UniProtKB/TrEMBL annotation, chain A:
<protein>
    <submittedName>
        <fullName>TonB-dependent receptor</fullName>
    </submittedName>
</protein>
<dbReference type="InterPro" id="IPR008969">
    <property type="entry name" value="CarboxyPept-like_regulatory"/>
</dbReference>
<comment type="similarity">
    <text>Belongs to the TonB-dependent receptor family.</text>
</comment>
<keyword id="KW-0732">Signal</keyword>
<keyword id="KW-0812">Transmembrane</keyword>
<dbReference type="Pfam" id="PF13715">
    <property type="entry name" value="CarbopepD_reg_2"/>
</dbReference>
<keyword id="KW-0472">Membrane</keyword>
<dbReference type="Pfam" id="PF00593">
    <property type="entry name" value="TonB_dep_Rec_b-barrel"/>
</dbReference>
<dbReference type="GO" id="GO:0009279">
    <property type="term" value="C:cell outer membrane"/>
</dbReference>
Automatic annotation (TrEMBL), chain B:
<protein>
    <submittedName>
        <fullName>DUF4249 domain-containing protein</fullName>
    </submittedName>
</protein>
<dbReference type="InterPro" id="IPR025345">
    <property type="entry name" value="DUF4249"/>
</dbReference>
<dbReference type="Pfam" id="PF14054">
    <property type="entry name" value="DUF4249"/>
</dbReference>
Amino acid sequence: MKKLLLFTFLFCSVLCLQNSFGQNVPEKKITMRLDSARFHDFVKQVESQTEYFFYYDAVRFDSLSLDLNVENQTIREVLDQVFKGSEFEYAIDGQKRIYITQGPRIITQLQPGLFDPNAVENGAVTYAGPEDGVREKLLSSAESKVHEIGIKKTKITPGNSTLTGYVRNAITGEPVIGAAVYIESPSIGVTTDALGLYALSIPRGKQLVRIKSFGMRETQRQVILYSDGKLDIEMRESVIALKEVSVKAGMDKNVVSTQMGQVKLTIKNLKQVPTVFGETDLLRTILTLPGIKSVGENSTGLNVRGGSTDQNLILFNDAVIYNPSHLFGFFSAFNPDVLRDVELYKSTIPSKFGGRLSSVLDINSRDGNKKKFVASGGIGLVTGRLTVEGPIVKDKTSFLLGGRSTYSNWVIKALDNPAYNKSSASFYDVNLHVSHEINEKNSLFLTGYVSDDRFRLYGDTLYTYQNQLAALKWKHTFNPKLYSVYTVSHSQYKYSMGASGLPLNSFDLKFNIQQSNFKADLSYVIDPRHTLDFGVSSIYYKLKPGTFTPRGAESLIIPDTLQPEQALESAIYIEDKFEVNPRLSITAGIRFSFYQYLGPKTVNNYLPGFPVDYIYENGTEKFGSGKTIKNYGGPEYRASMRYSVLDNLSLKLSYNTLRQYIHLLTNTMTVSPTDIWKLSDKYVKPQIGDQVSLGLYRNFRGNKIEVSLEGYYKNIKNFLDYKGGDSLIMNHNIEAAVLNTKAKAYGVEFMVKKMTGKLNGWLGYTYSRTLLRATDRESVDAPNKGNWYPSNYDKPHDFTMISNYRFSHRFSVSLNFTYSTGRPYTPPIGKYYIDGAQRVYYADRNQFRIPNYYRTDLAMNIEGNHKIKKLAHSSWTLAVYNLFGRKNPSSVYFQTVNGQVNGYQLSIFGQPIPTITYNFRF
Amino acid sequence: MKYNLLKFSFFILLLCVDSCIEPFSPPEVNSDEKYLVVDGFLNAGSDTSKIELRRTQNTNDGSAISVETGAKISVEMESGTAYSFTEKGKGAYFLPPINVNLSGKYRLRIKTAGGKEYMSDYVPVTTTPPIDSLGSVYDAERDAMVIKVNTHDPTNKTRFYKWKFEETYQYRAAYYSTLVIDTKKNEIVYRNEDINLCWKSAFSTNITLGSTIKLSADAIRDLPINVVPISTNKFYIKYSILVKQFGLTQDAFEYWTALAKTTQGTGSLFDPQPSQVTGNIKNIANPKELVFGYFSASRETSKRIFLTPNRGLYPRCDPPDTLSVADALKASGIMLISYQGERMDSVLTTSSFCADCRAQGGTNIRPPFWQ
């Protein structure tokens, strides 16, 4: 709007231009003394001393205070002095009007010869500065240049054409994701996709295309659109900071998009949240968002809206990661230096994702710097990390290599207790990301990731686990309306446990799961109102559920191997984004997933008519290699709708169904590294979930404050719980140890978010319940007599405050507070004597709760100076985790001592934990 | 395996610097409610039925098992015929053999002294075939004797089995005491009672179950019901085991299976989720009240075998002390073995553990069944 006004002024000035010529009266000189005066006073004085009249936006000069001492100077001299070093520019036209603008100066003259009839054929309407030098400069900048797009015609036919292209960072060449590309009249806009690509369908003719993205300097392009064409846009970062590119969707995305239950966090947001060991932690930050919980403090297993930890699809550059944590859950497996952003979908899950019920966590790494070599890193109390990046072929190919490792052993060694000295714990992870632009229409991305964890307890049991993945992504644009992404990936997760304490009992236990994945995702812009996403995907699973072998020659362990499992999961989907009118938009999709559990395998049979229990096992059935043992499949519906009630108020509704064919089996209270994944088979049915959610979104203060209120109700069929007392490790009848339950989850999430300004952060409150009930309510194994009971992670109230106050560009303080209801547990509540022995009896499952959880964290970020040219940019983070040292019990357990059952509570971070981290970048 | 998992939890402990484990006993967890425990069954054979009523206790209650006295117990047929039990002390109630209708259904009714009334579901009568044989085999790997049971039901009706046993063994004290102090006369006299050879009995504490549901014939072959390590010395002289066999309904079988799984361990960080196991008895007025135990109607069949594998070691003790007769008369709590050599002025003495087999819990009265 403001810009439009400026153009009106400009137009006025053009009309008056002719008249003003020749009035060459000697200028009045200005004399004034100002001391901390407001700009308004300055203007008044000048206007009273001269004939000049000011045009400016008073709001912008609110905070400007002036000290001025001039004597007999011209207006230009005075203004030069006033605006020297500021971002304001002034322009004076022939009518003695002064226009003060922020950013580009107003050009007060038209291009000479503009009204010469011969010149019209040049087509473009251009504005030129009064002086040749300025004009040159302006023309060379992309903003002022008029881009002619398409096949040039003398007469533009009415109608729409599509403008496509990439939005990139001018410095690093990285794509800018989620940037809003739009025109204001008529109001048409799109956002760039994961590759920075946009496709904007707008009326042909002269248009001003604006590009906005959080953390980037706003820019615009003047185009004359003749027909479909391409325009790549480079944007500059607006902040001078370390390599913390903050990319965010349009500011009003909260209200405008049809997506709901979607949260996007950039690396900058992540860095504000203090963590226990001082390092930016993706999963821990995710846990501060409404609707997301974990069982315990030491666990990074996410429970999203009442789902279990295995119901989250965790994608790292489109390849699955099975165990997203390090060091038994104390760290998340993602190196903060290589991350660009993470997007979490918890209610509207786009049709292109599937295979997990609760959420999709889409984690993207940055592309390497395409222009120059950069190194960055950090040193904390427990970990150190280093990232190097740079061009392989300038502007075409870049790499990003990041590594992280612990030197945490000293923490353990430093403890007084000699028992700990034999223990050790370490991990590392390495990321490699190579991006290559073949040509305008084709780009390739290669990602490699390896993580490794090992810990040894008391010198005799070594636990190790590894994640490995490789992904190759090819992005191909067929034409401006149709583009595609093909991904091939392979992920592997394995763990092993080696005990060598007693030579006779030494053993190795190993588990391994691999998946090979192919998918093709296409996007087709039918017309400005319809965008069609469609694609196919296929995953081949190969799982070795367990091998148990003797370790060393003396061991008497009898080797045991569980049969490998394999399966193929395929899906096809199509989804249409339909903008019915500017107020109403609808996204509807269907995904059809199909699952085959494949041989070779010998399957246990159970007596027909009896419960699936090992006591009723009855023979086996052999299936040959590649033979289908069991098929599952069905449609998944995805629909969402957004209705804008007001400009900054919208209502969203979504409905989802999802199917999950792979399950994590864990019947211990905490996530342990020996949890095993299990494919759906003849007995373990796929989990099927459906969710309906309703949300209200309102932005205040010019989109600076986002408020959202979401409610959801969710049903899950075939949710897995466990029968009392069965072990899951090396169990040949695993299907007999699991219990099919029906789950229902519902809740309300409230969030206020302010991500700009000196004070930023968010407040979130969630009320939620997750209840389970055995499918076979009559069975003896049905917990709580077949009635509803809370899940292990049912924590009704949850409140989080993340706040950050920026005192200056170099110093900020974060204060975070978390409260949640204690999680449920099942205590032994009595004992009795029956059939010749004492028995302990437990309360109904999960009817008691551990004490509520409160925690306050404080962190300070101190950045080095912002000189562009210096050896290293550095920053310090000082943080105190659990500032008040509250002993939050992370678990309770019971032990029988002399016939009495005693309870104990275990708090892991029961005292303030101060940390210091040094980050640097060369 | 489990051992290692338990140790794993120490890894967490190790990361919390000190004293992050604290006692945890929220008051609301230990309710004062003492629930009824019903232990027993209706004997459909020719033996007396016994039902014991007890009460649950708090987990940290160290006192003796509390029993429920003064209750009225009866079993009722579907037809309405009822038979009353009579109480014979210590919460035990007995019913003389009744003429059980094998095709009928029975339920248990309990009226406590406190006025609460409990009732079980109707249960069918399960027949129990006789035990065909008991066998024993030495397992070298475990260095233990394994007692096995064989049975079959030619009518293929029983299918679910539960066993209990009572084992009895003979053992000796290390030294033979021939002398005893006559406290009245304050002199040493010859002992006329054998306190060197004893019999000791123990009841099964594990729940042993078996099923033939997967088999084409209702036959149990060589099912191990007791594993006795040789190191217990139960097999040095003579060992006897009385195995009692009960046929169960499928429901009862599942109840005992669940109970066996759940109550063997207690919860630690990595232990599987516990679950609550209750049976088929309910408070009539308040069906939600917890009642423990499972009522079934079944015949009990039993078989006893004697084993003399002569495995193990003769018991050993420290060498006896030699005391003068005068000192020995003054000393208290000692056992006299015999006079020292030919001299009659001193005696060999030892502790009661080494010379009195009763000190180890057995009895020197020969059990009536002992052969």
